Every structure is written in C-alpha cells, then in structure tokens.
C-alpha cells in the first residue's frame, strides 16, 4: 500500500472527506505531498511530478523562489505576528498601487474569499443598495453572496447553491451569462437595486474561458452609465497575466479590485483596492466593517513585497517567456488532438491553458459544463501516472511558472500524447 493511501485512510477519520479543500480530492485518493522545489513536487512515496497546478495559480515564480524564501527567513527572525501596523504594510500597499492604476488605496487581508466578501460589502456600503450581479461559472470564494452557480470545486461537485446557504442572501445575487452583454443589460433594466457587478475578467474557474472581443469594455461602459461599481476579481489573474493583472492587459479600470494568489507566490495574503471614495468607507473611519487578526501578517507581507519586486525586476523576460511557452505547448497539444481526431477545444492566454473534450467553442458556463468531463478525468489520471500534476478538475486551469523549462515542457507533451491516446481509446 502506498504511503499516500495509508495517510488518506487516516485523514478520513479526522478530516471531513480526508481533505481540507474539496478541489484537492480525486479518485481513488489524492497523493500526499512531502516537499516541493522549483517546478517540481514530491509525494509521500518520493515520486516526483512536474507541477502545473502551481497552487492553483499562486506560484507564478515556482516553488521556494530564493528571493522570497530569503525575505521570509529574515522576517522570521524578527517575529511572526504583531497585530500592530508595520512600515512593511505601507511598502506593500505602495507596490500594489504602483502596479494597478485603478487602485488609490489598499486594505490587506488573508484570502481571496475574504477579499471578494469585503469588495461586495464595500459596493453595498457605497451605493446603499442590495443586489449583486455575478456571472455563471465565476468563482469568488465560498461565502453565501457568491456561491451561486459558481465555478471551481462547486461546479466540479455539481453544487449550484450550497446547503446551509441562506435564501435571503442568495436571492440578492443575480446571475447572468458570461460573455453575454445583452443578458447583463436586461438584468440591469429589470432591477433598480444593483449595488455592484463582480466578474473574473478572465474566467479561470470553469476551465479557462476568455472574454470575447469588447465584452469587458462594454461591461465597463454599461456599469459606468448606470452608476454601478465594477469589481474585478483578480485573485487568479492579478500579477499572473501582467504586473497590473487583466485590467492592465485589457486596458480597463474597475472601481474595486481583489487580488491574492500570485500576490505573494504561495503565502497567505489577499488585498482589496480601489477608488479613494470607496476605500475610505472601511472602518474605523468609515462604516463598512472589516477586520482580521492576521491581516498584514509580517511573514506574508514580506513574501508579497519580495514577490512583486521580483516580478517587476524580471517582467520583460518573465511574461514573454511564459507566453511563448504557452503558445508552443497549446499549439502542439492542439495538433496532437487533431491528428488523433479527438473532438476538442483549447483555450489559452498568458501562462494559462485548458483542454476541453467537445467540438463546440467553450465561451461560457454551459459550454464548459457540456464538455466531456469523464474524458478529462482519464486524461488527468494518465498524466499523473506519467509524473505530470495538473489540477484534478475540468473546471480548473493548467498554470505555467517561471521555474518550468523547455525540458519540462517536452516531457509534459510526451505525457499528454499518452494521455490523449488513452482518451481516444
């Protein structure tokens, strides 16, 4: 019996379903990780995998990036938690503002879900209205306001609305189709109590779904015309797509932005930023309450400062390298599947891609759900046997990191060839 199976059997007795996040489970049991470095991750049996899950996008610079580890080690010698303001928090806030022109002020917190929850509360506090518009398949964390037709593990497990969620809360969440401006306009016309619109500018929790031409610019135009705050959830795309996230890439300025993941390259931290008049509503001066013992944790703050500084230093090489690798890989993968006559779609941008087993373009929640998830699971299992670790769900994304080499990609393409052969058969 493998060490991972032994550990999973023990874990099931003390942890619900044996995992601390649903997305980590897959049949027959997930492997347990022993260590990681660079582009690689090792399981409890010392098997090495090339890691393309990358902390679900957090590890843009790879595991154990030396600059970040050095910064964190220095901070560890000074203490782990103060619960008082630090000069480092100011430095980090200035770095975020310097990369995101739409952001005047920043509030640091811990998780992406906490950030989106605060962003929505800010929008409601600013407008004095109740309803929030979200898009089908966008995942904004596991809190009641946004856990309605969400992506990620919610979609993977077939949960449209979570048990335990309050109808009184979810009824104030209006869900429209992603990439469907007409649906958005119709919803706005029918509802006069809209506090904000929240969106993943690039949908990275239903597999990878890209915004169609003019979708984001039209979204910005419509929300401005109707005086509705626009929230860009850049938990995945912030720093990953560009130093200034998807909003830099597409040239859009939202009113509120959330970020996490690549902000600190694997350490627990998130942030909400936005216009001064909105951000100043936060307590203690304002009446929108938000608080956290671990907000501005000096360990995570030091990691985020080092991460952003490293990204800014190497950005010209970093993003061009990842885009080049992604184009080469996605094109080769497309050619393989085409040669094998396997119906498929490959969506890719920047350092992210995903394959869907369907003959129709994947442009929204429904077209993603209609792809053959059983074939994807067969692909995943074959890749795993070949030493390639991607997220175990069709509704996640394959992430490249700066640590990946051409040799890693060549080996991965060979594994995908075997995986596609297994799918075909």
**CATH class categorisation of the largest domain:** Alpha Beta
Q: Which stretches are low in confidence, meaning pLDDT under 50 for 5 or more residues running?
A: 151-156
Number of strands: 14
Helix-strand category: alpha/beta
In round numbers, the mean pLDDT is: 95
The succession of helices and strands, N to C, reads HEEEHHEHEHHEHEHEHEEHHEEHHEEH
Note the quaternary state here. single chain
Main sheet makeup = 7 strands, mixed
Quick one: CATH superfamily of the largest domain?
Answer: Type I PLP-dependent aspartate aminotransferase-like (Major domain)
Rg, alpha carbons: 21 Å
Q: What distance lies between the first and last C-alpha atoms, to the nearest angstrom?
A: 29 Å
EC number: 5.4.3.8
Catalytic activity: (S)-4-amino-5-oxopentanoate = 5-aminolevulinate
Pfam families: Aminotran_3 (PF00202)
Keywords: Cytoplasm, Isomerase, Porphyrin biosynthesis, Pyridoxal phosphate
């Amino acid at each position: 019996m493998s060490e991972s199976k032994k550990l999973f059997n023990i874990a099931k007795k003390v942890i619900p379903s044996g995992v601390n996040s649903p997305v980590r489970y897959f049949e027959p049991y997930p492997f347990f990780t022993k260590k990681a470095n660079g582009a690689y991750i090792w399981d409890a049996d010392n098997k090495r995998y090339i890691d393309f899950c990358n902390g679900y996008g957090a590890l843009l610079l790879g595991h154990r990036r030396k600059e970040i580890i050095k910064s964190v080690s220095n901070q560890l010698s000074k203490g782990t938690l103060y619960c008082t303001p630090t000069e480092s928090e100011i430095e980090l806030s200035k770095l975020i503002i310097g990369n995101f022109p739409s952001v005047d002020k920043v509030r640091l917190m811990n998780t992406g879900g906490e950030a989106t929850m605060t962003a929505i509360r800010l929008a409601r506090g600013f407008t004095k209205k109740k309803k929030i518009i979200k898009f089908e398949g966008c995942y904004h964390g596991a809190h009641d306001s946004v856990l309605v037709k969400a992506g990620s593990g919610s979609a993977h497990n077939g949960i449209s609305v979570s048990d335990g969620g309050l109808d009184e809360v979810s009824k104030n969440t209006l869900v429209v189709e992603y990439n469907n401006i007409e649906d958005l306009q119709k919803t706005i016309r029918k509802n006069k109590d809209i506090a904000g619109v929240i969106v993943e500018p690039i949908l990275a929790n239903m597999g990878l779904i890209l915004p169609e031409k003019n979708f984001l610019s039209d979204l910005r135009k419509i929300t401005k015309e109707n005086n509705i705050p626009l929230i860009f959830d850049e938990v995945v795309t912030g720093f990953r797509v560009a130093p200034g996230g998807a909003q830099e890439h597409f040239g859009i300025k939202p009113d509120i932005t959330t970020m996490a993941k690549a902000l600190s390259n694997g350490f627990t931290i998130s942030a909400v930023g936005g216009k001064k008049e909105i951000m100043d509503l936060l307590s203690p001066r304002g009446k929108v309450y938000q608080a956290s013992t671990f907000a501005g944790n000096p360990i995570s703050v030091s990691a985020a400062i080092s991460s952003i500084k490293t990204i800014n230093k190497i950005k010209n090489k970093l993003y061009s390298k990842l885009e080049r690798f992604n184009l080469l890989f996605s094109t080769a993968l497309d050619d393989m599947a085409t040669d094998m006559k396997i119906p498929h779609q490959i969506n890719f941008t920047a350092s992210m891609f995903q394959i869907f087993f369907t003959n129709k373009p994947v442009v929204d929640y429904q077209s993603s759900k209609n792809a053959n998830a059983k074939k994807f699971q067969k692909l995943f299992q074959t890749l795993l046997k070949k030493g390639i670790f991607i997220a175990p769900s069709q509704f996640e994304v394959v992430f490249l990191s700066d640590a990946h080499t051409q040799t890693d990609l060549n080996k991965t393409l060979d594994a995908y060839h075997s995986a596609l052969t297994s799918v075909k058969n």
